[in-house]
Amino acid sequence: MKVDVMVCTYNSEWILDKCLESIWQGIPVKTLWVIDKSSQDQTREIAEKHHAVIVDCDGGILEARALGFRTVETDLFVNIDSDVVLPRNWYQKMMRYWENDVACLWGISIEQHPLHRAYVEAMYRIRDPTSYRVTHLPNMIAKKDALADIKFPSKLKSVSFGNDDAWIMHWMRDVKHLRVKTAPIRCKHYSYRLDLKPFWFGAGTRLTGMTKLRSLATRVALSFPQACYAGLVSKTARVVPYWTRFRFQCLIGWLQWNKYLDLKRPPRRRKPNG
Known about the structure:
Blueprint: E1 3-9, H1 13-26, E2 29-36, H2 43-49, E3 53-56, H3 61-71, E4 76-80, E5 84-85, H4 90-94, E6 102-111, H5 114-123, E7 139-143, H6 144-147, H7 164-175, E8 179-189, H8 197-208, H9 213-234, H10 239-255
Parallel strand pairs: 1-2, 1-4, 2-3, 6-8
Antiparallel strand pairs: 4-7, 5-8, 6-7
Helix pairs in contact: 1-2, 5-9, 8-10, 9-10
């Protein structure tokens, strides 16, 4: 069965070619929809080369998500972020974990920054990655009727970032009372600005109300012992300052959310490694 695929883009030239190539190799595509926010680089040309149907969206990422969810036409569709590279036969592997009462199935996206990846893979040694109550929106299979009518908070509609993963989980689990599931299938995630991502994450969780200050402070407190463990397992001492700083920056983003209301993404042509 072929499925529609949606990809939201914004000056994504630096990674989009690899992303779309992996989609065609990993998914039985019916229509590839690219929801683009007026990209100024070669994003649209790359999308056209990969036979995508381009849909313009002038709003932020949340509006692009919602537009894509309404645009796809197949009952079951796939969302892939533009900075994700899938393994071959990703869809076939994922569907082994699909169940009829599931509304959405996530794979696991592994950040490709070496220190971030070292931390995550170390923590997965002591806890099953599918047991975390987190979303992996960058690689997702979902039923169209679960998300076509999604409503994001009005205060976020003009924002160019957002903790959209958590809000989408909230919409399906708490608003529509649907079942979601995580499959142990991994993909590669190349974040555009990992140095700013924790600030955006912190601000987004505050604006959506998905994370409280106490919870975030607890994560900061636990970050040092967790990072020490990850550093020992990975034999990479630099994981310790990296991860503790990452968590602390999430807290700063939460406290100073007004500084991170817009995602600035000038064209970037440097290709990712790996």
